[in-house]
């Protein structure tokens, strides 16, 4: 079986978001469910962009769509574990924002999961991807250097 392996770009972190595993996040294996992992990642990504005065539904006039998602599950988390989700966005190449995230136990030593999402900004009139606007690139660069 081929496994997904992702290298988290620690030098491109733009945001850290604390969360706690809720009892409703548990699956019948009594650990954090895979579907909930994706929801927690989305929640943290929205907070990361919001901290830069950006929103996924309006990135300088363009809504974003997720083109693909990869998740590498590395460790179980259970209720009531305290977690931190780090969001990293390297400098955009082409028409995609590549967003990496990793879920850490609050101690920072144990990785629960690492994920990568490619997001495209879409021209509402044509339905086609557009180049990442310069103000978005600048906001991300400032966050990476902070």
TrEMBL record:
Would you tell me the protein name for this molecule? Acyl-CoA thioesterase
What keywords are assigned to this protein? Hydrolase
Q: A Pfam family matched by this chain, by name?
A: 4HBT_2
Q: Which PANTHER family match?
A: 4-HYDROXYBENZOYL-COA THIOESTERASE FAMILY MEMBER (PTHR31793), NOVEL THIOESTERASE SUPERFAMILY DOMAIN AND SAPOSIN A-TYPE DOMAIN CONTAINING PROTEIN (0610012H03RIK) (PTHR31793:SF27)
- Keyword Hydrolase attributed: yes
Its family remark reads: Belongs to the 4-hydroxybenzoyl-CoA thioesterase family.
**What InterPro entries does its record include?**
4-hydroxybenzoyl-CoA_TE, HotDog_dom_sf
């Amino acid at each position: 079986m081929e496994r997904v392996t992702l290298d988290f770009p620690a030098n491109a972190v733009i945001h850290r978001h604390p969360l706690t595993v809720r009892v409703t996040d548990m699956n019948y294996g009594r650990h954090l469910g895979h579907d909930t992992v994706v929801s927690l990642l989305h929640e943290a990504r929205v907070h990361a962009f919001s901290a830069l005065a950006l929103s996924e539904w309006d990135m300088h006039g363009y809504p974003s769509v997720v083109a693909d998602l990869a998740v590498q599950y590395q460790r179980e988390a259970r209720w009531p574990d305290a977690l931190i989700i780090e969001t990293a966005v390297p400098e955009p190449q082409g028409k995609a924002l590549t967003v990496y995230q990793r879920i850490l136990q609050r101690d920072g030593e144990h990785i629960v999961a690492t994920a990568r999402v490619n997001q495209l900004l879409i021209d509402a009139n044509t339905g086609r991807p557009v180049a990442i606007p310069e103000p978005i690139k600048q906001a991300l660069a400032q966050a990476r250097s902070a």
